[in-house]
TrEMBL record:
Organism: Cyclobacterium jeungdonense
InterPro entries in alphabetical order: 6-hairpin_glycosidase_sf, 6hp_glycosidase-like_sf, Gal_mutarotase_sf_dom, GH65_N, Glyco_hydro_65_C, Glyco_hydro_65_M, Glyco_hydro_65_N, Malt_Pase/Glycosyl_Hdrlase
Family: Belongs to the glycosyl hydrolase 65 family.
Protein name as it appears in the record: Glycoside hydrolase family 65 protein
Keywords: Glycosyltransferase, Hydrolase, Transferase
Domain (Glycoside hydrolase family 65 N-terminal): residue spans on this chain: 9-264
Pfam families: Glyco_hydro_65C, Glyco_hydro_65m, Glyco_hydro_65N
Highest taxon above the source species: Bacteria
Example of a GO MF term: hydrolase activity
Keyword Glycosyltransferase part of the UniProt annotation: yes
All residue ranges annotated as the Glycoside hydrolase family 65 C-terminal domain in the record: 724-785
Keyword match Nuclease: no
């Protein structure tokens, strides 16, 4: 049987290296390092990047006489640096030396990155190396490299060089190269003792101090060798060179144990003290790896999803689970960090936090609710900044930024570079106010899955009601229509940021934004009802909410305007129908890749604002986020008749007009097409599965994975293909009849009960494994059953 827990790359392929590095990133939620070779440096082929959760720094650049500031995701010191050379020879370099064999393997079950290779140097000396690397999931401050090295046809002196390099810049994304990319300032280096070194740096503006300590030891037959060691240091860099005599055919082991601490850590005296202490206590590779594997076992036990439909699909699903856990693991519970949309895997989108949580939390809620809570707190801690932003904009409540980083101010870049034309273009995507509804949606769904009343009534309600206040102040009443409207926004489809030939930014009545705002109002009223009365009084007072506001919310939630193109087709925004049709065929023939139509058109002096062409699902998000019952209810409230025809016609309309310039888009299409066209739904799902693995956008994955799409694929299996739905009174499971998936098995946590579910083409088996209470309600095909602890039930499917 094929090993579905590994990704194996045969052969050294320089042109694929940066993609492999992103996909072989090892992390533990706290810190992550790309899967670059230990001996590599940043160049055209390699990019060894190390990122810290929440590790941002701001820097200014002058562009055409204008100062702009960006907040970047800092590439922290490279702790990998490890190399060797035989006496008189050159340092190991895969670019210039003869590679006799090369194999790289990411073992996702054990969280180990392995490289096995044989090289021949200029003097014909052949050396075999097996390298193993771990970023510990248990001891989040510890990482370790293990090399086994065999001189196959030579004996003699060898030198190992083991370093810590703080002289790194942010250079992962070519488009950002004209911008200031120096973010670190050296603070000192130190030889701790004969085989241990220390590096101290800080970020230049945000003053995050990072300490790295490394201990390098050599062994033969398990006994420690006594190499001659020299320490070299210069500003921002320190290394130790270990010299020793090797004998032909024997295998030697080198271990480099690294401890990493920052000034943002909890329970520390000072990062340097802790880093030095940590490498003394960490033990050897075997010990670290044992603890690490145990921690991963626990995570896999909660998070794994088994499917039967081709080995590669199973493998890719696990790759997605793995990278989700490398980015946000239980290690970050309680830390002040959010979910970076590109993982901790690269510098794309500068580590910023967008609305992608919408695709990520449904998976986390059902397995790691404490983690979701912690990630929601990232938003709560930034509510003051959101209040300030709303006030500055003349609005009430809290207006969360489209892109969020360190302190919650708007981090969307002011201008971005179109690599196709070389032009710097104003970026108006910050007008995506729908991010606010996404946060509200996430709060509500976390509550629904966990029944965490403490969270909802305290932090959750404060954020939720502040967002409702914001929407209230965003709406204006249109007497003629007798409807409320929202003007000057951008929907999820970022291609449309204004009307053609208009100087005014934003669009009016983006259907998705309007319906979501109406939903927020409805839910806010419900939350006010269900929270404890004294808390309700407190909140109304603190947030200055009057009874008349509640009445207004009620009114808005029933009278929000939703534009239609013609009966049954929802318009993406008011006036969408007046735009020109886009000549898709012509452009598909003209360009190899038209995912990023915005860039293609700008390069031609044109703009997507003129066309009926969308980057990603926009209106259709509504049918992705809400269950049929829920969306029917929302529409009914709005006085709009919901019909299957409306859904299917809207799907057909936008399906032909979407370029899928965001990997998120396919997730939504797979979901909404399931009922109408299983083959198409499945094709979209498989595209999501290969998005990063095959880098289908041609060059984006080396700049970081697409976490929303990765987690979205997992959510598709549970919510779409298994038919799982978190309800108020029960956890519902209503599997559709599937043509493609033969088997699904997974475990979920619903309101503190662990439930195992497995599905094959004949039956659905549900086991109530363990939980805080002795009963749990599970609904199958419309009927609710009360499961007792330990109970297993089978449901035959026909
Ligand atoms: C998409 C956004 C997404 C962002 C980060 C953009 O390309 O259009 O919807 O939030 O990437 O993943």
């Amino acid at each position: 049987m094929k090993d579905n827990f590994s990704i194996v790359y045969e052969g050294w392929k320089p042109e694929k290296q940066k993609l492999r590095e992103a996909l072989c990133t090892l992390g533990n939620g706290y810190i992550a390092t790309r899967g670059a070779a230990e001996e590599s440096r940043s160049d055209d082929v390699n990019y060894p990047g190390t990122y810290l959760a929440g590790g941002f720094n701001r820097a200014k650049t002058e562009l055409s006489g204008k100062m702009i500031e960006n907040e970047d995701f800092v590439n922290f010191p490279n702790w990998l640096c490890l190399n060797f050379r035989a006496e008189g020879g050159a340092w190991l370099n895969l670019h210039s030396q003869k590679i006799l064999a090369y194999r790289q393997r990411l073992d996702m079950k054990c969280g180990i990155l392995m490289r096995e290779f044989r090289v021949e140097d200029e003097d014909g000396r052949i050396t075999a190396i097996t390298s193993k690397r771990i970023v510990s999931m248990r001891d989040k401050h510890i990482a370790v490299i293990h090399w086994s090295l065999t001189p196959e046809n030579w004996s003699g002196k060898i030198e190992f060089r083991s370093g810590l390099d703080g002289n790194v810049i942010n250079d992962n994304v070519a488009r950002y190269r004209e911008l200031e990319n120096r973010h670190l300032e050296p603070q000192g280096t130190e030889k701790i003792d004969d085989n241990a070194i220390f590096l101290f740096v800080s970020t230049r503006q945000s003053r995050i101090f990072m300490a790295q300590a490394a201990r390098t030891s050599l062994y033969h037959n398990e006994s420690e060798m006594s190499p001659v060691i020299t320490t070299n240091q210069r500003e921002g860099y320190i290394e130790q060179v270990l010299r020793v005599e090797l004998e032909e055919g024997k295998t030697y082991t080198l271990e480099k144990v690294v401890g990493i601490y920052t000034s943002r850590d909890r329970a520390i005296s000072e990062p340097g003290v802790e880093a030095k202490k940590s490498i003394k206590r960490a033990g050897r590779f075997e010990e670290i790896s044992f603890r690490h594997e145990e921690a991963l076992k626990t995570l896999w036990n909660r998070a794994d999803i088994g499917i039967i439909n081709g080995d590669s699909n199973q493998q890719l699903l696990r790759l997605h689970i793995f990278h989700l856990l490398q980015t946000v693991s239980t290690n970050i519970i309680g830390m002040d960090v959010g979910v970076p949309s590109r993982g901790l895997h690269g510098e794309g989108y500068r580590g910023h936090i967008f609305w992608d949580e919408l695709y990520i939390f449904p998976f986390l809620n059902l397995r790691f609710p404490d983690l979701t809570r912690s990630l929601l707190m990232y938003r709560y801690y930034r509510i003051e900044e959101a209040r300030f932003a709303a006030k500055e904009d003349g609005k009430k409540g809290a207006m969360y930024p489209w892109q969020s980083g360190s302190n919650g101010r708007e981090e969307t870049q002011v201008v971005h570079l179109n690599p196709q034309s070389g032009n710097w273009i104003p970026d108006n995507t910050h007008l995506q106010r729908h991010i606010n509804s996404a946060i509200a949606y996430n709060i509500w769904n976390y509550y629904l899955t966990t029944e965490d009343q403490q969270f909802l009534s305290y932090f959750g309600a404060e954020m939720f009601l502040s967002i409702a206040q914001f929407w209230e102040s965003m709406t204006s009443y249109n007497e003629e229509k007798d409807r409320y409207e929202i003007h000057g926004v951008v929907g999820p489809d970022e291609y449309h940021t204004s009307y053609p030939d208009s100087d005014q930014l934003g669009l009016n009545n983006n259907a998705y934004t309007n319906v979501m705002a109406a939903w927020v109002m409805q839910k806010a009223l419900h939350i006010v009802e269900i929270i404890e009365k004294s808390r309700r009084r407190e909140l109304m007072k603190e947030l200055h909410i009057q009874e008349t506001d509640l009445e207004l919310w009620q009114d808005i939630s029933t009278k929000m305007y939703v534009p239609f193109i013609e009966e049954d087709i929802i318009a993406q925004f008011e006036g969408y129908e007046k735009l020109d049709e886009f000549p898709w065929e012509e452009y598909r023939n003209k360009y190899e890749n038209i995912h990023r139509l915005d860039r293609v058109l700008e390069n031609e002096g044109d703009s997507p604002n003129r066309y009926k062409a969308s980057k990603q699902a926009d209106v259709l998000m509504l049918f992705y986020l809400f269950t049929k019952t829920e969306i029917q209810r929302i529409f009914k409230n709005l006085g709009i008749e919901y019909s299957e025809e409306m859904v299917s016609k809207s799907i057909a309309y936008y399906r032909e007009r979407t370029s899928h310039g965001s990997t998120l888009s396919r997730v939504v299409f797979s979901w909404i097409l399931l009922k109408y066209d299983q083959q198409q739904s499945w094709d979209n799902f498989e595209t999501v599965l290969i998005s990063d693995f095959e880098d289908i956008q041609g060059g984006t994955t080396p700049e970081g994975i697409h976490l929303g799409a990765m987690a979205g694929s997992l959510d598709l299996v549970q919510r779409a293909f298994l038919g799982l739905e978190v309800g108020e009174e029960a956890l519902w499971i209503d599997p559709p009849m599937l043509d493609h998936l033969k088997k699904i098995s997974l475990r979920v946590q619903y309101r503190r009960h662990w439930i195992a579910v497995s599905l094959d083409d004949k039956k659905l088996t549900i086991t109530f494994e363990t939980g805080w209470k002795n009963e749990v309600k599970i609904g199958v095909k419309g009927k609710i059953f009360e499961f007792k602890l330990g109970e297993v039930r089978e449901f035959l499917l026909n």
